[in-house]
Amino acid sequence: xxxxxxxxxxxxxxxxxxxxxxxxxxxxxxxxxxxxxxxxxxxxxxxxxxxxxxxxxxxxxxxxxxxxxxxxxxxxxxxxxxxxxxxxxxxxxxxxxxxxxxxxxxxxxxxxxxxxxxxxxxx
Length: 123
Known about the structure:
There is one protein chain. By secondary structure, the chain is of the alpha+beta class. The chain has one domain (23-114): CATH 2.40.50. The protein has helices spanning 5-15, 17-20, 110-114, and strands at residues 27-37, 40-44, 49-53, 76-79, 82-93, 99-108. Strands 1, 2, 3, 4, 5 and 6 form a 6-stranded antiparallel β-sheet that branches. The protein is globular, with a radius of gyration of 19 Å. Residues 8-23 have low confidence and may be disordered.
């Protein structure tokens, strides 16, 4: 029995899931990790400001627990217990403005971000 074109395409998609959905690739993003107020986090790198979470939106990405208490290392306090640091993260993004998944996090000395001319100083 001959399969119709839509049935054949569906069979192929089921047999080869990688063809049906684009693979998300990990990106390394380095820059200023900012936590200015409760539940508001973003990363400013040389290309963009990447939103990680916004207070009250319930948009926390998978892997948020990989970000430790950044105030325990090289850190600038700007608002009570809140502030910014320098970090590199392996992430998946939506390609526009949001970090959708955190795969790893590494905090760096503030001097690393301060010396990077491509980064805009936070504030």
